[in-house]
Design brief:
Elements (H helix, E strand, L loop, with lengths): L2 H4 L8 H13 L2 H11 L2 E6 L3 E6 L2 H10 L4 E2 L2 H11 L8 H11 L5 H19 L8 E2 H17 L6 H23 L4 H6 L2 H26 L6 H7 L11 H32 L1 H17 L3 H7 L1 H13 L5 E6 L3 E3 L2 E3 L4 E5 H4 L19 H8 L15 H18 E5 L5 E4 L3 E4 L2 E6 L1
Parallel strand pairs: 2-8
Antiparallel strand pairs: 1-2, 3-5, 4-12, 5-8, 6-7, 9-12, 10-11
The structure holds protoporphyrin IX containing FE (HEM).
């Protein structure tokens, strides 16, 4: 049977269009994706070579199928499993199959609600001290401020008592440096020879090694101190594999800690930046958040109870992540031939799901480009949640969802209580790299 008969793929993007647009796509793929979806339908394909296809989709049925219903047949692509792990190690985010499952089972308990509740005071204190230095009454670039805040929240949740501020700075520097280089390698594959020859690959591998050493030193210090501290490191040191009763090796622990830093700080910083921008442009929404927080604080001093009552603030955060999902795209590859919606796809087909476009697909959302937090309240919320993937879906859904929601609600609440936010940009700019990174998003903070 010929390939064409056996397999069928979504409408194809012509190879001429693909090459014509290549440079623009490299700079910012999002406007191109929108155009292709409008022209070709909710999924389209690109033929690579003789019989290989790439599919890009904004179709909810396809997202559900590959992430939830038949997730066993879909592994992460090479981009996530091979390239990311080259510098970042083999942790939860970059592993697949049995080893991933073993690690997920081991680490999941550290993120259970009960455990998060134990971390919440520490998270809140870190946020307060980060916001102490917030520059007032003049425009500031939000992302670097939110990035420091989110990094330190993860760092202090992992290593509560470590006083090694200089080590934290260095770890942050290395993670960002290595991540930027990785993006260069992925986006400019034709320059691989130059990156190698000019010593850049070697330099970044040695930075990655330095990072391992820094984290190892912090772990060794903790082990030597024999202190019982209620932080994530303690939970990760105490957790045991079900079958052997053993804990993780130090090497594995270092890789998992790196993944938590990477997965946990930029995503949260992006979401907070976009949310502050939206609040700064929508004073009536900001007022409602302020009213909600004031009302809640008059009812209880208990932070967990306060968080549980932040219905409107959570709706604002959800609507912000609908419009600007920090993890804007994900991908998978199928292990075996499969029927995907009405298509028949060959094994090893690369399938991307653009959460950015799914979250704005007019088939699922009314006025999709408008900021309407009420979509995430009451009855409307049930409907909206079916098409909403800020944290992914299925067994590989974000392990830090609860952590991120606590952190974001507490940050927004602390800021709105103290300040009136005014945006300095009407339109938000971003750069879709591994995450959807805000660019020059400015706001001013005026004391209430
Ligand atoms: C607003 C903040 C966050 C967003 C939007 C976000 C989003 C996501 C998404 C979409 C995935 C799934 C990717 C896929 O299926 O391909 C994911 C996975 C993951 N996230 Fe998050 N995340 C956030 C915060 C965090 C935090 C705070 C942590 C940890 C402290 C974290 C740790 C992880 C880990 C370890 C994974 C891999 C899970 C696995 O594959 O088993 N994330 N995240």
């Amino acid at each position: 049977m010929s390939n064409n008969v056996k397999y069928s793929y979504p409408n194809k993007l012509s190879i001429i269009r693909f090459f014509k647009d290549a440079e623009g796509v490299r700079k910012n793929p999002i406007p191109f994706h929108r155009r292709y979806f409008e022209k070709l339908g909710d999924s389209f394909s690109i033929r690579i070579g003789f019989s290989k296809y790439i599919i890009l989709s904004r179709d909810n049925e396809i997202a559900q199928y590959i992430l939830v219903k038949n997730q066993k047949n879909y592994h992460k692509s090479k981009f996530q499993s091979v390239y990311l792990s080259k510098y970042l190690g083999k942790g939860l985010l970059t592993n697949d199959g049995d080893f991933w499952l073993k690690q997920r089972r081991l680490i999941q308990p550290a993120f259970h609600k009960q455990k998060m509740n134990q971390l919440v005071d520490n998270i809140n204190t870190t946020i307060t001290s980060e916001l102490d230095d917030l520059i007032e009454e003049k425009p500031i670039d939000l992302f670097p401020v939110m990035s420091n805040l989110a990094f330190n929240v993860v760092a202090k949740s992992l290593f509560q008592l470590s006083t090694a501020e200089d080590k934290f700075h260095r770890i942050k520097f290395i993670i960002e440096e290595v991540q930027n280089f990785l993006i260069k390698e992925i986006r400019l594959p034709h320059k691989a020879w130059w990156f190698s020859l000019s010593g850049q690959v070697k330099k970044h591998l040695s930075l990655a090694e330095e990072n391992n050493k820094l984290i190892q030193e912090i772990i060794e210090e903790r082990k030597a101190s024999n202190e019982e501290i209620n932080d994530l490191l303690n939970m990760l040191l105490e957790t045991r594999y079900e079958d052997t009763g053993e804990g993780m090796t130090v090497e594995q622990l270092i890789d998992e800690i790196k993944v938590l830093f990477i997965a946990g700080h930029e995503t949260t910083a992006n979401a907070l930046t976009f949310t502050l921008h939206l609040l700064g442009n929508n004073p009536e929404v900001q007022q409602k958040v302020f009213d909600e927080i004031s009302e809640i604080e008059s009812q209880t001093d208990n932070i967990i109870e306060q968080l549980q009552k932040m219905t409107y603030t959570s709706a604002v955060l959800n609507e912000s992540m609908r419009l600007f999902p920090p993890a804007w795209i994900t991908d998978r590859q199928n292990l075996e031939d499969d029927s995907l919606a009405q298509f028949k796809i060959k094994k090893d087909t690369l399938i991307g799901v653009s959460f950015y476009e799914l979250h704005r697909n007019p088939k699922y959302w009314n006025n999709p480009d408008e900021f309407i937090p009420d979509r995430f309240l009451g009855e409307q919320k049930k409907e909206s949640m079916q098409y909403f993937y800020p944290f992914g879906a299925g067994p590989r859904m974000c392990i830090g969802t609860g952590f991120a929601i606590y952190e974001m609600c507490l940050t927004i609440s602390q800021i709105v209580k103290k300040y009136v936010i005014k945006s300095n940009n009407d339109v938000v700019q971003f750069n879709p790299l591994i995450t959807l990174k805000p660019v020059n998003v400015e706001a001013s903070f005026f004391k209430r």
